[in-house]
Specification:
mainly alpha; single chain; 501 residues
Length: 501
């Protein structure tokens, strides 16, 4: 008989429930069910998100740090090196986007399986399988699973960290859980240090402020993991950004100034497939697209009620607490939205939601059970249809945009702007990556150059300025040769063509 952990109640006294795992008749089930969900997630990514979809703007920044095929793009203050190191096994020797997408899809499936398996001692496998399926079929999860972006991995780290923390609290002999706490905290901090702190805030508060949860080893594992994952980011802050405080301040400025700013409406607008809603001035998507967002907290609350009635509230409470703190900065402290920001929240909420749904459709002896089963089935079917519809449109639109960068890069090569080269102006960062050039900007979020450094570079390498239609080039490029590249204007420094091979 598989074991179910007896987790201490939040706020219980010193003489609370026993800390040893108790035997239970509730069987957690076969882990192959979780493997099936993870495998289906991988397959869905490969089928629905084109492996040939080019790299996005942020992806080009992360990949360029470890790729020999393009110079490293400017690495702004909020970014961390975790994604670059994650993709290094592929991008350090191959420029194939398809190979990178397949690698990340397989890795994301493995991550989902590990994260769900951590919880097998706390919830039945059928609940975890449904939770994994709910999370994995969100369009934003499928879209970002195979991408070189950090948010999915923060979500996976959050699931593992909370689950292992509960296991370590319940069983002092569970060394694997202690390692899980430390490694998952390090993974989150490796990807996005501020997000790691927000996700783990309830765990830190519990481990410090609540007597029943004051255990040295889980707290030590959590703190050491956070510091280990963020160590490089902190050291880099002092080496290249003027100190930790300055890096945090620069990161806040780049994100529009963190403070009280209700972004709930912006997140709702982004649910229609806007990967970055900045500025977020478009209209709201249809109610069919946003309905699940309003239903989600209601079902999660029902999951908490069910857990309280079953006298097992700790795991559900902690999941919802960490989900809340994970969402706070992106719902109430930032002036724009991207749906990927809330992936950790969705991952953590998925288990209480799945627990509630399984309870609704399996509770015996209730005359209204067939009605509930029908409503849940219809709701999930409609939800899946909406998610896949949004995903399809988003993939198509994103692929077209990335293809446009590739076309512009090819035109730049035709004009003689070939590596080693430098680009400035509109969307210079991704276009430069596609062209194999470095990018430069005078001021702004990616400011890394001056007018003098650009004109000096133009004397010994091909340099070009890219602008949108109707926008004049900067003063230093007013006499550069004008050209058209699709819908964009390109101004090439004199002599660029003659310096190409």
């Amino acid at each position: 008989m598989a074991r179910t952990l007896n987790v201490p109640l939040i706020g219980a006294g010193r003489h609370g429930p026993p800390t040893r795992p108790a035997r239970s008749s509730r069987h957690p089930g076969d882990p192959r069910l979780l493997a099936f969900v993870a495998g289906a997630f991988v397959l869905a990514q490969l089928l629905l998100v084109h492996p040939t979809m080019g790299l996005g703007w942020d992806e080009t920044v992360y990949v360029s740090q470890v790729s020999p095929h393009a110079p490293a793009a400017f690495f702004s203050a909020p970014r961390a090196r975790g994604v670059s190191l994650l993709v290094a096994p592929i991008t350090s020797w191959s420029s194939s986007t398809t190979l990178l997408r397949v690698y990340l899809a397989l890795l994301s499936g493995l991550g989902l399986f590990v994260a769900l398996r951590v919880w097998r001692a706390l919830f039945p496998a059928r609940v975890l399988a449904l939770a994994g399926a709910l999370f994995a079929t969100l369009w934003v999860t499928l879209f970002y699973g195979p991408q070189a972006m950090p948010n999915y991995w923060v979500a996976i780290g959050a699931l593992v960290c909370v689950g292992c923390f509960l296991r370590a609290q319940a069983d002092r002999r569970d060394r694997a859980a202690l390692w899980g706490v430390g490694l998952s905290a390090a993974l989150m901090a490796w990807m996005r240090p501020p997000d790691a702190v927000w996700v783990t805030l309830p765990l830190l508060v519990l481990a410090v402020a609540v007597p029943r949860w004051r255990r040295a080893r889980p707290l030590l594992a959590l703190v050491v993991g956070l510091l280990a994952g963020a160590a490089e980011w902190i050291v880099e802050a002092y080496v290249g950004y003027g100190g930790l405080g300055q890096r945090l301040a620069d990161g806040s400025r780049i994100q529009g100034g963190l403070g009280w700013n209700i972004a709930v409406g912006d997140q709702l607008r982004s649910l229609g497939g806007r990967v970055l809603c900045r500025p977020c001035t478009a209209g709201m998507p249809s109610p069919a697209v946003t309905a699940w967002w309003f239903v989600l907290p209601l079902i999660a609350a029902l999951g908490l009620v069910i857990a309280v009635k079953a006298r097992r509230p700790a795991a559900t409470l902690l999941l919802l607490a960490c989900a809340t703190t994970a969402g706070v900065p992106y719902l109430f402290m930032i002036g724009y939205a991207a749906p990927r920001f809330l992936l950790p929240l969705y991952a953590l909420v998925a288990i209480p939601v799945a627990d509630a749904l399984v309870h609704l459709v399996t509770v015996p002896g209730r005359p209204w059970r067939p009605v509930i089963v029908t409503l849940v089935a219809l709701g999930l079917a409609g939800h899946l249809a909406v998610q896949f519809s949004v995903l399809q449109a988003t993939v198509r639109r994103t692929t077209d945009g990335h293809r446009g960068w590739a076309v512009t890069a090819a035109e730049l090569h035709r004009l003689g702007v070939r590596p080693p080269c430098r680009l400035i102006g509109h969307e210079a960062v991704p276009i430069a990556f596609y062209a194999g050039c470095s990018s430069a900007a005078i001021g702004g979020h990616n400011g890394n150059a001056t007018r003098e450094s650009i004109t000096r570079a133009a004397r010994h390498m091909p340099v070009a300025v890219v602008t949108r239609p109707g926008i004049k080039p900067p003063g230093y490029a007013h006499d550069w040769a004008p050209h058209r590249a699709g819908d964009l204007n390109v101004y090439v420094a004199p002599g660029a063509g003659s310096r190409t091979p």
